[in-house]
Design brief:
Keywords: NADP, Oxidoreductase. GO terms for molecular function: NADPH binding; oxidoreductase activity, acting on NAD(P)H. The protein has two domains: about 180 residues, Quinone Oxidoreductase, Chain A, domain 1 (Alpha-Beta Complex), CATH 3.90.180.10; about 140 residues, NAD(P)-binding Rossmann-like Domain (Rossmann fold). Helices cover about 30% and strands about 30% of the residues. It contains ten helices and 15 strands. α3 packs across α4. The radius of gyration is 20 Å and the shape is globular.
Amino acid sequence: MVSIPATMQVIAVENAGKDSTLRIEQRAVPQPSAEQLLVKVAAAGINRADLMQRRGLYPPPEGESDILGLEVAGVVVAAGPLHKSWLGKAVFGLVPGGGYAEYALLHAGHAMAVPAGYSMAEAAATAEVFLTAYQLLCSIGNLQTNQRVLIHAGASGVGTAAIQLAKAIGAKVAVTASSAEKLAICTALGAELAINYKTTAFEQELASHWPQGVDLVLDPVAGEYISREMRLLAMDGKIVLYAMMGGHDIPQLNLAPLFKRRGQLICSTLRNRSNRYKTNLTQAFSQAFATMLAQRQIQPVLQQQFDWRQAQIAHQLMASNATIGKLVLTF
Protein backbone atom coordinates (compact mmCIF):
# COMPACT_ATOMS: atom_id res chain seq x y z
CA MET A 1 0.00 0.00 0.00
CA VAL A 2 1.48 3.34 -1.08
CA SER A 3 1.43 6.05 1.57
CA ILE A 4 -0.14 9.23 0.19
CA PRO A 5 0.45 12.47 2.12
CA ALA A 6 -2.38 14.85 2.97
CA THR A 7 -0.70 17.83 1.34
CA MET A 8 1.55 18.45 -1.63
CA GLN A 9 3.64 21.21 -3.14
CA VAL A 10 2.27 22.93 -6.24
CA ILE A 11 3.24 25.81 -8.47
CA ALA A 12 0.63 28.55 -8.10
CA VAL A 13 0.08 31.70 -10.13
CA GLU A 14 0.29 34.96 -8.23
CA ASN A 15 -1.19 38.20 -9.59
CA ALA A 16 -2.62 36.69 -12.81
CA GLY A 17 -2.12 39.06 -15.73
CA LYS A 18 0.80 40.40 -17.70
CA ASP A 19 2.85 40.80 -14.49
CA SER A 20 2.08 37.37 -13.03
CA THR A 21 4.65 35.39 -11.09
CA LEU A 22 4.89 31.77 -9.96
CA ARG A 23 5.24 30.61 -6.37
CA ILE A 24 5.38 27.29 -4.55
CA GLU A 25 2.56 26.63 -2.10
CA GLN A 26 0.97 23.78 -0.17
CA ARG A 27 -2.36 22.33 -1.28
CA ALA A 28 -4.37 19.30 -0.26
CA VAL A 29 -3.69 16.19 -2.33
CA PRO A 30 -6.78 15.69 -4.52
CA GLN A 31 -8.93 12.59 -4.14
CA PRO A 32 -9.77 10.56 -7.27
CA SER A 33 -13.41 10.11 -8.23
CA ALA A 34 -14.74 6.81 -9.52
CA GLU A 35 -13.43 7.60 -13.01
CA GLN A 36 -10.07 9.10 -12.04
CA LEU A 37 -6.53 8.02 -11.26
CA LEU A 38 -4.28 9.80 -8.78
CA VAL A 39 -0.82 10.12 -10.31
CA LYS A 40 2.39 10.83 -8.41
CA VAL A 41 3.77 13.25 -10.96
CA ALA A 42 7.28 12.60 -12.25
CA ALA A 43 7.16 15.11 -15.10
CA ALA A 44 4.76 17.68 -16.55
CA GLY A 45 4.76 19.12 -20.04
CA ILE A 46 4.88 22.89 -20.57
CA ASN A 47 2.49 24.35 -23.13
CA ARG A 48 1.82 27.81 -24.46
CA ALA A 49 -1.63 27.53 -22.90
CA ASP A 50 0.11 27.71 -19.50
CA LEU A 51 1.48 31.14 -20.39
CA MET A 52 -1.97 32.26 -21.52
CA GLN A 53 -3.56 31.01 -18.30
CA ARG A 54 -1.01 32.99 -16.27
CA ARG A 55 -2.16 36.09 -18.10
CA GLY A 56 -5.80 35.37 -17.32
CA LEU A 57 -6.62 34.63 -20.97
CA TYR A 58 -7.23 30.87 -20.79
CA PRO A 59 -9.04 29.84 -17.60
CA PRO A 60 -9.51 26.16 -16.74
CA PRO A 61 -12.85 24.52 -17.52
CA GLU A 62 -15.43 25.02 -14.77
CA GLY A 63 -14.82 22.81 -11.77
CA GLU A 64 -11.26 21.86 -12.76
CA SER A 65 -8.02 22.66 -10.96
CA ASP A 66 -6.68 26.20 -11.29
CA ILE A 67 -3.12 24.84 -11.10
CA LEU A 68 -1.22 25.09 -14.39
CA GLY A 69 -0.30 22.02 -16.41
CA LEU A 70 -2.21 20.13 -19.12
CA GLU A 71 -0.23 16.88 -19.30
CA VAL A 72 1.64 14.67 -16.87
CA ALA A 73 3.58 11.45 -16.59
CA GLY A 74 4.00 9.47 -13.40
CA VAL A 75 2.92 6.45 -11.39
CA VAL A 76 -0.67 5.71 -10.40
CA VAL A 77 -0.96 5.60 -6.58
CA ALA A 78 -4.76 5.58 -6.18
CA ALA A 79 -7.69 4.83 -8.47
CA GLY A 80 -11.45 4.66 -8.71
CA PRO A 81 -13.00 1.24 -7.94
CA LEU A 82 -13.24 0.14 -11.59
CA HIS A 83 -9.69 1.19 -12.46
CA LYS A 84 -7.54 -0.53 -9.82
CA SER A 85 -5.63 -2.34 -12.58
CA TRP A 86 -3.74 0.93 -13.17
CA LEU A 87 -2.27 0.96 -9.65
CA GLY A 88 1.51 1.02 -9.71
CA LYS A 89 1.62 1.56 -13.49
CA ALA A 90 3.59 4.30 -15.22
CA VAL A 91 1.15 6.42 -17.23
CA PHE A 92 0.94 9.65 -19.18
CA GLY A 93 -1.96 11.67 -20.51
CA LEU A 94 -3.92 14.89 -20.73
CA VAL A 95 -5.24 16.64 -17.64
CA PRO A 96 -7.60 19.67 -17.73
CA GLY A 97 -5.35 21.37 -15.16
CA GLY A 98 -3.28 20.51 -12.12
CA GLY A 99 -0.13 19.20 -13.80
CA TYR A 100 2.34 21.49 -12.00
CA ALA A 101 1.99 19.60 -8.73
CA GLU A 102 3.38 16.59 -6.91
CA TYR A 103 0.09 14.76 -7.44
CA ALA A 104 -2.50 15.18 -10.21
CA LEU A 105 -5.85 13.66 -11.18
CA LEU A 106 -5.97 11.90 -14.56
CA HIS A 107 -9.22 10.61 -16.04
CA ALA A 108 -8.82 6.85 -16.48
CA GLY A 109 -9.96 7.05 -20.09
CA HIS A 110 -7.19 9.53 -20.86
CA ALA A 111 -4.37 7.41 -19.42
CA MET A 112 -1.81 5.77 -21.68
CA ALA A 113 0.92 3.39 -20.55
CA VAL A 114 4.42 4.86 -20.76
CA PRO A 115 6.18 2.96 -23.60
CA ALA A 116 9.11 0.78 -22.59
CA GLY A 117 12.36 2.71 -22.80
CA TYR A 118 10.73 6.14 -22.54
CA SER A 119 11.81 8.46 -19.75
CA MET A 120 9.09 10.15 -17.75
CA ALA A 121 10.14 13.46 -19.30
CA GLU A 122 9.64 12.04 -22.80
CA ALA A 123 6.25 10.66 -21.83
CA ALA A 124 5.22 14.03 -20.37
CA ALA A 125 6.19 15.66 -23.68
CA THR A 126 3.92 13.42 -25.73
CA ALA A 127 0.20 13.62 -24.94
CA GLU A 128 -0.70 17.25 -25.62
CA VAL A 129 1.22 17.64 -28.86
CA PHE A 130 0.43 14.26 -30.41
CA LEU A 131 -3.24 14.25 -29.44
CA THR A 132 -3.62 17.84 -30.67
CA ALA A 133 -1.87 17.00 -33.93
CA TYR A 134 -3.92 13.81 -34.34
CA GLN A 135 -7.13 15.76 -33.74
CA LEU A 136 -6.18 18.44 -36.27
CA LEU A 137 -4.89 16.09 -38.97
CA CYS A 138 -7.24 13.12 -38.63
CA SER A 139 -10.38 13.85 -36.61
CA ILE A 140 -10.93 17.26 -38.20
CA GLY A 141 -8.66 17.40 -41.25
CA ASN A 142 -9.28 13.82 -42.49
CA LEU A 143 -5.83 13.92 -44.08
CA GLN A 144 -5.26 11.16 -46.64
CA THR A 145 -2.24 9.54 -48.28
CA ASN A 146 -0.67 11.77 -50.97
CA GLN A 147 -2.59 14.86 -49.87
CA ARG A 148 -0.67 18.06 -49.12
CA VAL A 149 -0.58 19.73 -45.71
CA LEU A 150 0.91 23.06 -44.63
CA ILE A 151 2.00 23.14 -40.99
CA HIS A 152 2.78 26.56 -39.54
CA ALA A 153 5.13 26.75 -36.53
CA GLY A 154 6.64 23.50 -37.76
CA ALA A 155 9.32 23.37 -35.06
CA SER A 156 6.85 23.79 -32.19
CA GLY A 157 5.70 20.88 -30.08
CA VAL A 158 2.49 20.42 -32.06
CA GLY A 159 4.31 21.15 -35.31
CA THR A 160 6.99 18.50 -34.79
CA ALA A 161 4.32 15.96 -33.83
CA ALA A 162 2.13 16.89 -36.81
CA ILE A 163 5.01 16.49 -39.29
CA GLN A 164 5.64 12.96 -38.03
CA LEU A 165 1.98 11.94 -38.06
CA ALA A 166 1.40 13.43 -41.52
CA LYS A 167 4.40 11.53 -42.90
CA ALA A 168 3.17 8.33 -41.24
CA ILE A 169 -0.16 8.83 -43.02
CA GLY A 170 1.71 9.25 -46.30
CA ALA A 171 0.98 12.92 -46.88
CA LYS A 172 3.25 15.57 -48.39
CA VAL A 173 4.33 18.15 -45.82
CA ALA A 174 5.29 21.82 -46.03
CA VAL A 175 6.20 23.87 -42.96
CA THR A 176 6.98 27.40 -41.96
CA ALA A 177 9.41 28.39 -39.19
CA SER A 178 11.58 31.35 -38.24
CA SER A 179 15.18 30.11 -38.45
CA ALA A 180 17.49 27.80 -40.37
CA GLU A 181 17.91 25.64 -37.26
CA LYS A 182 14.17 25.16 -36.88
CA LEU A 183 13.73 24.43 -40.59
CA ALA A 184 16.51 21.83 -40.43
CA ILE A 185 14.66 19.98 -37.65
CA CYS A 186 11.46 20.03 -39.70
CA THR A 187 13.28 18.65 -42.74
CA ALA A 188 14.90 15.92 -40.64
CA LEU A 189 11.42 14.90 -39.46
CA GLY A 190 10.25 14.55 -43.07
CA ALA A 191 9.02 17.92 -44.34
CA GLU A 192 9.52 18.18 -48.11
CA LEU A 193 9.24 21.96 -48.18
CA ALA A 194 10.55 24.19 -45.37
CA ILE A 195 9.95 27.94 -45.61
CA ASN A 196 11.45 30.71 -43.47
CA TYR A 197 8.43 32.99 -43.03
CA LYS A 198 10.67 35.88 -41.93
CA THR A 199 12.52 36.04 -45.23
CA THR A 200 10.02 34.55 -47.69
CA ALA A 201 6.32 35.05 -48.42
CA PHE A 202 5.16 31.52 -47.67
CA GLU A 203 2.15 31.72 -49.98
CA GLN A 204 4.30 32.59 -53.00
CA GLU A 205 6.84 29.87 -52.26
CA LEU A 206 4.13 27.28 -51.72
CA ALA A 207 2.19 28.22 -54.84
CA SER A 208 5.32 27.80 -56.95
CA HIS A 209 6.05 24.32 -55.56
CA TRP A 210 2.47 23.07 -55.18
CA PRO A 211 0.44 24.80 -57.90
CA GLN A 212 -2.32 22.22 -57.40
CA GLY A 213 -2.96 23.66 -53.94
CA VAL A 214 -2.96 22.56 -50.31
CA ASP A 215 -5.54 20.15 -48.91
CA LEU A 216 -5.08 21.11 -45.27
CA VAL A 217 -3.53 23.98 -43.32
CA LEU A 218 -2.75 23.76 -39.59
CA ASP A 219 -2.63 27.32 -38.34
CA PRO A 220 -1.85 28.52 -34.78
CA VAL A 221 -1.32 32.09 -36.01
CA ALA A 222 -4.67 33.29 -37.43
CA GLY A 223 -4.84 37.07 -37.97
CA GLU A 224 -3.65 38.14 -41.41
CA TYR A 225 -2.45 34.61 -42.22
CA ILE A 226 -5.99 33.50 -43.01
CA SER A 227 -6.39 35.63 -46.13
CA ARG A 228 -3.01 34.44 -47.40
CA GLU A 229 -3.92 30.79 -46.81
CA MET A 230 -7.30 30.85 -48.50
CA ARG A 231 -5.71 31.40 -51.90
CA LEU A 232 -3.49 28.35 -51.40
CA LEU A 233 -6.28 25.85 -50.86
CA ALA A 234 -7.01 23.00 -53.24
CA MET A 235 -10.67 22.31 -53.96
CA ASP A 236 -12.49 21.35 -50.74
CA GLY A 237 -9.39 22.27 -48.71
CA LYS A 238 -9.50 23.08 -45.01
CA ILE A 239 -7.85 25.66 -42.80
CA VAL A 240 -7.88 24.55 -39.15
CA LEU A 241 -7.12 27.26 -36.59
CA TYR A 242 -5.97 26.01 -33.19
CA ALA A 243 -4.51 29.20 -31.68
CA MET A 244 -4.43 32.93 -32.38
CA MET A 245 -0.80 33.93 -31.88
CA GLY A 246 -1.15 36.50 -34.66
CA GLY A 247 -4.31 38.02 -33.24
CA HIS A 248 -8.04 37.31 -33.30
CA ASP A 249 -8.96 40.07 -35.76
CA ILE A 250 -8.90 39.33 -39.49
CA PRO A 251 -8.28 42.54 -41.45
CA GLN A 252 -10.49 43.02 -44.51
CA LEU A 253 -11.37 39.39 -45.04
CA ASN A 254 -12.60 38.61 -48.56
CA LEU A 255 -14.42 35.28 -48.50
CA ALA A 256 -14.53 34.91 -52.29
CA PRO A 257 -11.34 32.78 -52.51
CA LEU A 258 -12.76 30.43 -49.88
CA PHE A 259 -16.05 30.05 -51.76
CA LYS A 260 -14.21 29.51 -55.04
CA ARG A 261 -12.45 26.51 -53.53
CA ARG A 262 -15.39 25.27 -51.45
CA GLY A 263 -12.98 25.76 -48.57
CA GLN A 264 -13.60 25.31 -44.88
CA LEU A 265 -12.34 27.53 -42.06
CA ILE A 266 -12.50 25.58 -38.79
CA CYS A 267 -11.67 26.64 -35.22
CA SER A 268 -10.53 23.87 -32.88
CA THR A 269 -9.74 23.49 -29.18
CA LEU A 270 -8.98 20.45 -27.03
CA ARG A 271 -8.86 21.45 -23.36
CA ASN A 272 -12.58 22.24 -23.05
CA ARG A 273 -13.77 19.08 -24.83
CA SER A 274 -15.76 16.51 -22.89
CA ASN A 275 -14.16 13.60 -21.08
CA ARG A 276 -15.87 11.23 -23.52
CA TYR A 277 -14.41 13.10 -26.50
CA LYS A 278 -10.90 12.99 -25.01
CA THR A 279 -11.29 9.30 -24.18
CA ASN A 280 -12.33 8.54 -27.76
CA LEU A 281 -9.50 10.68 -29.12
CA THR A 282 -6.93 8.99 -26.86
CA GLN A 283 -8.16 5.53 -27.83
CA ALA A 284 -8.21 6.34 -31.55
CA PHE A 285 -4.70 7.77 -31.41
CA SER A 286 -3.44 4.78 -29.44
CA GLN A 287 -5.02 2.32 -31.85
CA ALA A 288 -3.48 4.07 -34.84
CA PHE A 289 -0.06 5.06 -33.50
CA ALA A 290 0.81 3.42 -30.16
CA THR A 291 3.00 0.82 -31.88
CA MET A 292 4.87 3.47 -33.87
CA LEU A 293 5.33 5.48 -30.67
CA ALA A 294 6.67 2.45 -28.78
CA GLN A 295 9.09 1.70 -31.63
CA ARG A 296 10.13 5.38 -31.85
CA GLN A 297 9.05 5.64 -35.47
CA ILE A 298 7.33 8.71 -34.09
CA GLN A 299 8.46 10.38 -30.86
CA PRO A 300 8.40 13.71 -29.06
CA VAL A 301 11.10 16.26 -29.73
CA LEU A 302 12.25 17.15 -26.21
CA GLN A 303 14.43 20.24 -26.13
CA GLN A 304 15.04 20.67 -22.41
CA GLN A 305 14.07 19.45 -18.95
CA PHE A 306 13.82 21.78 -15.96
CA ASP A 307 13.54 21.01 -12.28
CA TRP A 308 9.96 21.95 -11.41
CA ARG A 309 11.18 24.74 -9.14
CA GLN A 310 12.57 26.42 -12.29
CA ALA A 311 9.17 26.77 -13.94
CA GLN A 312 9.57 30.55 -14.18
CA ILE A 313 12.80 30.15 -16.20
CA ALA A 314 11.17 27.55 -18.43
CA HIS A 315 8.24 29.87 -19.11
CA GLN A 316 10.60 32.70 -20.03
CA LEU A 317 12.30 30.42 -22.55
CA MET A 318 8.98 29.39 -24.07
CA ALA A 319 7.85 33.02 -24.29
CA SER A 320 11.02 33.86 -26.25
CA ASN A 321 9.82 31.66 -29.17
CA ALA A 322 13.33 30.22 -29.35
CA THR A 323 12.26 26.68 -28.52
CA ILE A 324 12.21 23.59 -30.72
CA GLY A 325 9.78 20.89 -29.66
CA LYS A 326 8.91 20.54 -26.00
CA LEU A 327 9.96 21.81 -22.58
CA VAL A 328 9.23 19.66 -19.52
CA LEU A 329 9.28 20.08 -15.75
CA THR A 330 10.59 17.14 -13.70
CA PHE A 331 9.65 16.44 -10.09
